[in-house]
Amino acid sequence: MPFKAGLELTELQNMTLPEDDNISNDSNDFTEVENGQINSKFISDRESRRSLTNSHLEKKKCDEYIPGTTSLGMSVFNLSNAIMGSGILGLAFALANTGILLFLLLLVSVTLLSIYSIYLLLMCSKETGCMVYEKLGEQVFGTPGKMIVFGSTSLQNVGAMLSYLFIVKNELPSAIKFLMGKEESFSAWYVDGRILVVTVTFGIILPLCLLKNLGYLGYTSGFSLSCMVFFLIVVIYKKFQISCYELGLNATSPILSNSSEHEHMCKPKYVIFNSKTVYALPTIAFAFVCHPSVLPIYSELKDRSQKKMQLVSNISFFAMFVMYFMTAIFGYLTFYDNVQSDLLHKYQSKDDILILTVRLAVIVAVILTVPVLFFTVRSSLFELARKTKFDLCRHVVVTFVLLVIINLLVIFIPTMKDIFGVVGVTSANMLIFILPSSLYLKITHQDGARLTQRIWASLFLALGIMFSLVSIPLVIYDWVQSGGSTEGH
């Protein structure tokens, strides 16, 4: 039966559209000719219906709807786990090089901007139906989008692995010396951090990474978060145990022999600008990156909605803001200008069981967390290469080569601030600022009703680009000027 010229669009949408190959040119089947002219209204309606159908098919090929089963409280715990990481160890160093007021301003700004970027990410997920970051990038920007998202998330995970292994390199020698009853100045090849990190990597981490399934290691994230909470408690407690005056007496610097100079050093600074200030923002950004985990957590949320996931995000970021600020301020007020980029390394474990315990807890936590991150990077690499079928030889070779590269980087990178700096100005900036805003602007580019939201997203994108243009040259300039300073490590 031929379509009628006056058929409404809503009726057309409810009908089944034939495949393009089956569309006949016979005017009796699909068009109506009036006085030798094809009815333009029908053509318009048919094209609109086909456009809607194709749009629906594009959305369907991203992700099917699967109901979540995770409660709001557990989702908050999971997202807090995703946010929390080794970045907490570098925040006191960032504060020491910005001052209390400037650091607080930066911390509040990054927290609010991160929450806004989660909002944009959730909006993009709602519009496309995608629950995986790489799929979202591919859906909006095609293969280049998928590659950019893969590169950013992989660099972020590699940076996290580097920082974790750097903790092993810094902290394990001190723990072993304490257990052996040796002084901190004791030096032997078997307590060299570089040798120990290689030994741990290929003795413990490699066998775990070679397993086909690392699902059970996901439970270590809870242990890792517990270790960081324990670390915060110890930092607060030690502030009231360690006197800045005692630190001055133990220092060998001639500057500190002058009591007035020492008194000045033990006073908190509120606004500071120096060559290391440039690392503050990248370090804070690195500490707040959790974006690759947001969509998976969202997909598992029970009775999920954008509003409910935004609440999960707000609670998690506020909790981490409090924890980060307390760690930074108490760490800074303990060591002041002497604080290092790895705050835990500044505490001496000699005859101090509490410090030894927190050191061992953090070391065990990061060792068990590295395989989980490694598994994610390797799986993404195989997915990108379309080599998803398990092959033992390829599995072993890729694992070994990646671990060798990561260990070489850990051995030759002088300080953790370099890791935080590089990852902060690259992948963290992409994941927090540039990608969410770019995806949102692309998805809504024809939606005139969202002009205000698009203006804000454009400003957010501009901020991310400006952050890259300013921070990257300054980090490179500091490398050249400092000549690879090791901060006494």
Automatic annotation (TrEMBL):
The keyword DNA damage is assigned to this record: no
GO CC term (a single one): plasma membrane
Protein name (record): S38A1 protein
Gene Ontology MF annotations: L-glutamine transmembrane transporter activity
Record key words, sorted: Membrane, Transmembrane, Transmembrane helix
Topology of this chain in the membrane: Multi-pass membrane protein
Location of the Amino acid transporter transmembrane domain: 69-473
Localization terms from the record: Membrane
Transmembrane segments: 76-96, 102-124, 145-167, 187-209, 216-237, 278-299, 311-333, 353-375, 396-413, 419-443, 455-477
UniProt main location, coarse: membrane
Pfam families assigned: Aa_trans
